[in-house]
Amino acid sequence: MTFISDADMEAVMADMRTAALKEVLPRFLRLESDQVRAKTSVDDLVTDADLRAESMLSEALARRFPGAVVVGEEAVSADPDLLGRVGTAPLSIVIDPVDGTWNFANGLPVFGMMVALIAGDETIAGLIHYPLTGDFILARRGGGAWHVAPDGERRRLKVAPPKPIAEMSGIVCLPQLPPEEQAAIAPNLPSFLRVTNYRCSAYEYRLLAQGSIDFVMNASLQPWDHAAGHLVHLEAGGYAAIPPGIGYRPSMGQGRLLLASNEAVWHDVRRALGIL
Question: Are residues 49 and 93 in the same domain?
């Protein structure tokens, strides 16, 4: 398996910072109407920041990891066949240049940048950057999950301790589900203390990994949304699976990915949500 060193991680962080400073932050709160476009639906957006940041990151990471297949979210929109390289290439690098594009385009300061390094069909490193605050959460397989402050100070991340359903907070992305599933799950949400949706995987995984929330359920399994954060969550001590208990892989495109503090909590949340 490809080895990712400390130097590699620092280099990827530097590339992400540069793309954020040059292509993302200058456009936040400054987008003109012709710099925001719809993709698959009216609330599935792409901006000039997404396109420019992905281009810059793709070029930088291709230079750093010669021979790697670089798969960006926006590149897949232009060439869907590119997605099939994830899970089959010896090393693929998956990029989400602006995760939470709807928030970004609408002036909400809840967005991030995500990069996953994947060997075969296993994520070996995941990095999530928060351009507005300048920090990261990241993990290498087997190395724990960490928060990295703008000054470089590191703090180990740990998921929340187990608790009763009535005391749990989490995220359920209902709009990703077909109407009949939304109607079945929605009545169960009041069983929890709080259930919300930030429209941003980068922040969902942050909240999970630092123990601020107890669970997340997603039904959109694009690798740029989950490969990096899933590894950070696991390395922070969490448990994740697709009901009835199938382990997540970056090549997966379908299923309901449920993440929780540990396996017992996962089963408790699954039952409480009514997910089969």
Answer: yes
Whether residue 38 is found in the same domain as residue 95: yes
Place of tokens 């400073």: 21
Examine the domain organization and report whether 215 and 109 are in the same domain.
Answer: no
Whether residues 147 and 32 fall in one domain? yes
Q: In whole angstroms, what is the distance from residue 192 CA to residue 190 CA?
A: 5
- If asked whether residues 54 and 149 sit together in one domain, one would say yes
Q: Over the stretch 78-134, which tens digit does the pLDDT of each residue have? A: 999 999 999 999 999 999 999 999 999 999 999 999 999 999 999 999 999 999 999
Question: Which among 113, 144, 154 has a CA at the least distance from the CA of 20?
Answer: 113
- Tell me the HSE value of 214 on the side-chain side, using a 13 A CA sphere: 21
CATH number for the domain spanning 31: value is 3.30.540.10
Tell me the per-residue pLDDT of 160-196, one tens digit each, with 9 for 90 and over. Answer: 999 999 999 999 999 999 999 999 999 999 999 999 9
Print the domain residue range for 213: 165-273
Q: What span, in angstroms and rounded, lies between the C-alpha atoms of 86 and 91?
A: 9
Report helix, strand or coil for 69. strand
On whether residue 1 sits in a domain, the answer given is: no
The residue whose two tokens read 């930030």 is 198
Total domains in the fold of the chain: 2
Q: How far is CA 69 from CA 12, 84, 109, 240, in A?
A: 15, 11, 31, 26
Orientation of helix 201-209 relative to helix 223-235, angle to 10° = 10
Q: Which two tokens stand for residue 50?
A: 């997404």
